[in-house]
Write a structure and sequence with these properties.
- It is a single chain.
- 37% of the residues lie in helices and 23% in strands.
- By secondary structure, the chain is of the alpha/beta class.
- It has one domain (2-303): Spore Coat Polysaccharide Biosynthesis Protein SpsA, Chain A.
- The termini are far apart.
Length: 334
């Protein structure tokens, strides 16, 4: 299998070498690889810094350039130049800490048929309610740190989910069949959610693999002007228009734990002692056999503990304290 690692970089000369090394140094070297980097309106020395790392890594690489086009265009540009069997779209604030992450991914891909998209940071479970609502499915790994804010306690496992968000991977053949990334969501976001739901409609299953990924310095989208960030609400409305009926029909039926995993000396791997005999993607967890409201109550009771409640309160207090400090500093500056 050949992997294409696609990056969209915007003014990251301070971070780009450690970012690239986190992905490249942790490769198993059991497969073929190429790196495609799109520098989007970068004005600093990011290309030169990236070249220093890539020239010593003995990997094929391409540098492409865009003029303030943001992630969807840049990811699609990288995809158009990709020669790999499987492409991973990586934001310019995503560091990965699991060794042999590519081989773990390859093992999961070999286990199943008809895989749609694979989320490496988090998955999404669509929820009932007005608009397009979802719950984030994410496992707290060692390097997520203070940026991890999910109160639900998900087991370390491969999960089937409704949708995923960046960084994510997909078969290049499948993405070509789907027509590439959807420019209707340009410039910044929403195409990953739309692509997930399109694949769900076609009978594919989307997966979340809980890799140890930290996003801490701000991606191309989060560094965008306010008018660009405002397209997020538009993206949700567009997804609701396109897929609202699908979401309402399948709420509560797609989230399921497929493969238990474990961490061994920095390697995230499948727990081979699992008692799951069949990994048929049509098989879901027992909760989908219950009515949705009963399943939700069951989940809350199963996950409740005073320790988790205490930790959730501490995280919330920490976030409020940080916000108050930011407001105080901003007012002092005025």
């Amino acid at each position: 299998m050949k992997f294409t690692l696609a990056f969209d970089i915007y003014n990251k000369e301070q971070w780009i070498q450690s970012l690239l090394k986190s992905w490249l140094d942790n490769l198993s070297r059991k497969h073929e690889y190429e790196v495609v980097i799109v520098f989007d309106a970068s004005k600093d020395a990011s290309p030169e810094m990236a070249k220093e790392v890539l020239q010593t890594g003995r990997l094929d690489y391409q540098f492409l350039y865009a003029d303030d086009e943001y992630e969807i265009y840049c990811n699609d540009l990288a995809f158009q130049h990709a020669t790999g069997d499987f492409i991973v779209f990586i934001q310019d604030d995503n560091w990965i800490y699991d060794r042999d992450w590519d081989d773990t991914l390859a093992q999961v891909l070999r286990r199943f048929d008809k895989i749609g998209v694979v989320g490496l940071l988090a998955g999404l479970e669509m929820k009932q309610g007005p608009g397009l609502r979802y719950r984030r499915v994410e496992v707290n790994r060692p390097h997520k740190g203070d940026r991890f804010w999910i109160s639900d306690n998900f087991d370390l496992a491969v999960w089937s989910v409704d949708a995923i968000c960046r960084p994510f991977g997909i078969s290049t053949k499948l993405l070509r069949e789907m027509g590439g990334l959807d420019f209707a969501f340009r410039p910044t976001c929403g195409d990953d959610l739309d692509l997930s739901l399109k694949l769900l409609r076609k009978g594919y299953t989307n997966l979340y693999i809980p890799f140890d990924i930290n996003n801490s310095v701000g991606s191309r989208s989060t560094m965008a002007p306010d008018f660009v960030k405002s397209v997020y609400s538009h993206a949700l409305e567009l997804c609701l228009t396109r897929h609202g009926e699908l979401v309402r029909r399948r709420v509560g039926t797609n989230l399921g734990k497929l493969l238990p995993m474990e961490e061994q000396s920095g390697v995230l791997c499948i727990r081979e002692s699992t008692s799951i005999e069949s990994h048929d993607l049509r098989a879901r967890s027992a909760r989908v056999l219950m009515p949705v409201w009963i399943a939700n109550v069951y989940d809350q009771l199963r996950r409740f503990s005073f320790g988790r409640m205490r930790d959730a309160v501490k995280r919330r207090i920490h976030r409020i304290t940080c916000l108050v400090k930011e407001i105080y500093v901003a007012r002092r500056a005025e």
